[in-house]
Amino acid sequence: MDHNGHWWQKSVVYQIYPRSFMDSNGDGIGDLQGIIGKLDYLRNLGVDVIWLSPFYASPNADNGYDISDYQKIMEEFGTMEDFDELLKEAHQRNLKIIIDMVVNHSSDEHEWFKKSKAGIEPYRNYYIWRKGVDGKEPNNWRSNFSGSAWTYSEERQEYYLHLFHKKQPELNWQCAELRNEIYRMMNWWLDKGVDGFRLDVINYIGKNPEFPDGVIGKDGLGDFVPYAVNLPISHDYIKEMNSQVWHNREGILTVGETPFAGTDDAVQYSCLDNTELNMVFQFEHMDLDNAEDGSKWSDRRIPLLELKRSFSNWQGKLYGKAWNSLYWCNHDQPRVVSRLGNDTDETWWNKSAKMLATCLHFMQGTPYVYQGEELGLTNYPFSDIRDFRDVESINAYHEYTEILHVDNDKMISYLRNKSRDNARTPMQWDETDEAGFTTGVPWMPVNPNYKRINAAAQIGDEDSVYNYYRKLISLRKEYPIIVNGDFELVGEDNADVFAYLRHWKDQILWVACNFTDRMQKIVSPSSNHAEYRKWDVICDNYSPSGYPFEKGQIELRPYEAVAVLGNS
Fold it and tell me: What is the CA radius of gyration of the chain?
């Protein structure tokens, strides 16, 4: 299968969380001018696309994912003129811009919601309103951010639905006027010159209109997922969005965030026939360290055997049918070198950060790099609930300690392990005060390891994590097998090494990654593939590699990752 016709299949996307990327005016908050000032850094890294997390007007109940005006810039971030300048400067450097589009919900401070609450037509039905049942909420659904998913409006004398924060009311996609309004807004951004969209929880937009109760959990509330996620109607809405917004435009990239989606769902959302989206973000591999009851909050470590099987399943099931998105990190996930690598030892930190990057970037799909991932940024050493800014983390802390009676220290360990705030600490640019992120007081603390881990220290260091990412990104453009090859898991039962093969035309690519701090013996690829007479190491996080691949067995050093190309 050859995908040379799609630019985004050869590309690497870099996600920016504007609030934490670079502050240009000393107010402690990252902004659009700060991003403009770092475009050459991104060009030098070699990425092709910048994905901007929300920068729209917002009261920031959920750090910008609660939008009060889709066509206005948050004042803290700058002006529309700043955005236009960013778009121009990025395009001049051959960098594309995709923007986060949150259309499952808005802020309760959006004019649409204010008018809906007041019963003004046509806005009355822009949101999901229901009468109470026996003086209580319309059903038992639990919000993703804890507590009931319904809030009562005295003004309207009804409850409105919010699957996230109470200040994030769900938009009613059954309403045709609302859908058309959203499509007009999205076209406005495309007309301005943006290159695509990342669509937040787009598989939530269709709801069961009966709103049945969900299965009750330990908090006494019900699970909404079977009735509000991945419903067939969502596909209808996305197909309509496709036809109304980007179908007749060239080269638009669309990626949908789809929690709880399996491979069959993903094939529907991102089928190569291009009737819906180009690709989706799935969460199967990111949920493998959840608690036994399915809750996010735990201090478990992802078992490698389960991780391998998950990736193998997605690589195999989507091949030739849909396109994978590849990621370890984003604004909702902890730092991968702390999660799956080793951040306690400087040598192993460097090696494990590179190993994890190798493991991901040689798979089939479009890689996403989250800001600071290319530097090996680590989780923050949180010790107190007052350290946190994330509404999800704060709400979970109070629910677990006050209602479920989880010990304070235990809950802090869960949050230190999984909180979204780990990804949201300011970018570490250099060893000056506040890591060069701001001349003021940052909106949340900088990780105290910034004097050791920062961009300035790594750019000129050939052995740095940063320059290793540069190499991985360039290899994707050099070797078509990385883009086009199929996927075969090797050593499925090996709990310490993640190894796989990619096949394309007359070549084979063998990738092996040691996830431990111990030597690991594995079978050389030449032992089982004698038809490939020439083996070339194209990437190794140790230098030199020096492996005799004609031998039957080799030893991977601690956290070593190696990619070897075989030619017949």
Answer: 24
Task: Compute the Cα dihedral for 498, 499, 502, 503 and give only its sign.
Answer: negative
- Cα–Cα distances in Å, from 179 out to 3, 144, 171, 173? 32, 24, 9, 6
The pTM score is 0.95
Does residue 246 sit in helix, strand or coil?
helix
- Please give the distance of CA 288 from its chain centroid, rounded to a whole number: 16
Nearest CA to 475 out of 431, 440, 509, 513 is that of 509
Is residue 200 part of the annotated active site? The answer reads: yes
Judge whether 390 counts as a catalytic residue: no
Q: Are 131 and 159 in contact (CB under 8 A)?
A: yes
Give the per-residue pLDDT at 274.
83
Q: How many CA atoms lie within 13 A of 308 on its CB side?
A: 22
% the chain with pLDDT above 90: 86
* Torsion over CA: 149, 157, 129, 140 (sign): positive
User: How far is the C-alpha of 465 from the C-alpha of 121, rounded, in Å?
Assistant: 55
**Which one of 200, 265, 332, 560 is the catalytic residue?**
200
244 CA to centre of own chain: 26
Specify which residues 504 forms β-bridges with: 507
Q: Which domains does the chain have, with CATH numbers?
A: 11-105+176-385+423-472 (3.20.20.80), 111-161 (3.90.400.10), 386-418 (no CATH), 486-567 (2.60.40.1180)
DSSP letters spanning 11-31 = --EEEE-GGGT--SSSSSS--
Angle at which helices 465-478 and 346-361 cross, to 10° = 20
State percent of the chain over pLDDT 70.
98
- Identified catalytic residue from 66, 82, 181, 257: 257
pLDDT digits (tens, 9 = 90+) for 406-450: 999 999 999 998 999 999 999 999 999 999 999 999 999 999 999
